[in-house]
Every structure is written in structure tokens, then in C-alpha cells.
Amino acid sequence: MKRAVITGLGIVSSIGNNQQEVLASLREGRSGITFSQELKDSGMRSHVWGNVKLDTTGLIDRKVVRFMSDASIYAYLSMEQAVADAGLAPEAYQNNPRVGLIAGSGGGSPKFQVFGADAMRSPRGLKAVGPYVVTKAMASGVSACLATPFKIHGVNYSISSACATSAHCIGNAVEQIQLGKQDIVFAGGGEELCWEMACEFDAMGALSTKYNDTRKKRPVPMMLTVTASLSPAAAVWSWWKSWNTPWRVARTSTPKSSAMARPPMARTWSPRLVKAQCAACRWRCMALIRRSTI
């Protein structure tokens, strides 16, 4: 079985729009959680979210971005970073059946699903819906919207598994290389942030309401006290290649992987177990930060 290594990384998130910004936020304990007037105006109980602080206008070609949801936009920008981080020339990955892409979105785009339904009910009907809503709304929109502009000719599909989507896409990409089916795979995922999706979690009591009026004391990364989850938007990408694939890559390989690990929380839930797992995870994260590794 072949060995897979990471040679490029890209990230757009609520705590930074590249590796350096995210690392600095983790070191300094900066939270990306902010107040959201949109959530408040929609009637939700939770008024905080982890939004991406980035104006994406003009960052992607108009003919490409018209098919994209926010999740696909974040994923596209992250993939650009991963390619640059790897020092990968276009001829090394474009139009190559041995180079693939596995990426997904856990929730698709409820914003555009709602938009499509509302537009259909309007007086203009189908004309108001337009031809670009499909790729924006579907959960596989991330892989669809990236494979074409990056000219990926290998495997190209999405795995959608809620919060584990990106992890499963990355793990499956590693397996494609281990089994010898692909030499290079771009892997990761993206999520958009909108009240249309957040309200569903708020209705089940899964979003935090404790920090609505105390925003200066909002949750910070790696805190041990868990009140509830928060609504985030992000995209993370890694570029994997076979250990034996001699591509023209400028940078050296970083983390190495021989298997996809089982999630540490995949056991019976209990408050005591959560506290123990978070404490253990926190120290592992801090060790990575001290080594200046993401």
C-alpha cells in the first residue's frame, strides 16, 4: 500500500484567511465569533456566529463565480492557496486522469434552496430562478465548481456527512492514493453561513445563546466549557500526493499519513468524557502550535 503525504494547505475561516492568520489566532487565543444582526433580525435565539471576514468580490473570475455558493467560493480560494503552498505548476495537475478532487459541503446551500423556491413562487416563475441555482444549492456543488476551472480530470465527487464532511473527504483522498488509484488528490470542503441553515440548529437548541449580551466574553478557541455549538463558515483544503510521485514541487512534504484515524469522540457521550477529551485535545493542539505547525 502506498504512503500519502500533504504537500500543500489552504484555509479560509472565521479566525483567518490563510495559514499564517489562523496560526496567529490560535497562538493568541483570538475568537472568530461575532455578533450577527442577520441572525437577530431573523428571529433566532442565537445572535452570534463565526463569519469569514473577507470581501470575495473580484477574487474569482466572473464566469466562474456565477455558479458558486459562498461555500464553493471559500473552497476555491483555499484550493488556490494549497496549489501555491505546494509550488505546483499547472501542467503538473491539469488535464491529468491521475489527479483527482474530493470535496463536499455538509449542508449544501439552504440559502439558494430557499431562493429557488421563493423565485418560483414569484410572478416571473422559472425566469426568476435562473440557470445557476443548481450548482449553488446542491451538496456536491463544491466539487463541481472547482473541478472545471482547475481542469481536474481524475476522480471528482463529494462526500456529505454533516460536520465530518471535510474529514471524510480528506480520508477518502488518502485512500485513493494508498490504493494506487490516484497520484494526486485535492481534498477538503467548505460551508457557508446563513440564517436559513442556522435556524434549523437553533430550533433544536444546538446553538449558543449565552453570549448574545456579553460579546466581549464570547467563546474562544479550545475553551473547556461548552455551552452549545456556534454557526461557522469556513473552507479547508489539503493537497495530497503519493510518497513516490516525483512531481515538480517546490516545498517539502509536511505531515505524513499512513491511515485515517478514528475520531476520539466516537464513544458514548458523557460530560465527564467530553471534559477529558477536550483537555487531552487541547494539549495536543498547543503542542502543534508551539512547533508552528497547523
UniProtKB/TrEMBL annotation:
Belongs to the thiolase-like superfamily. Beta-ketoacyl-ACP synthases family. It holds the Pfam family ketoacyl-synt. It is found in: Cytoplasm. PROSITE patterns: KS3_1. One of its GO terms (molecular function) is 3-oxoacyl-[acyl-carrier-protein] synthase activity. The gene is fabB_1. InterPro entries: Beta-ketoacyl_synthase, Ketoacyl_synth_AS, Ketoacyl_synth_N, Thiolase-like. It catalyses: (3Z)-decenoyl-[ACP] + malonyl-[ACP] + H(+) = 3-oxo-(5Z)-dodecenoyl-[ACP] + holo-[ACP] + CO2; a fatty acyl-[ACP] + malonyl-[ACP] + H(+) = a 3-oxoacyl-[ACP] + holo-[ACP] + CO2. Residues 2-213 form the Beta-ketoacyl synthase-like N-terminal domain. It is an enzyme of class 2 (transferase). Homodimer. Keywords: Acyltransferase, Cytoplasm, Fatty acid biosynthesis, Fatty acid metabolism, Lipid biosynthesis, Lipid metabolism, Transferase. Pathway: Lipid metabolism; fatty acid biosynthesis. It comes from Klebsiella pneumoniae. GO terms for cellular component: cytosol. This is 3-oxoacyl-[acyl-carrier-protein] synthase 1. Its main location: cytoplasm. Its EC number is 2.3.1.41. GO terms for biological process: fatty acid biosynthetic process.
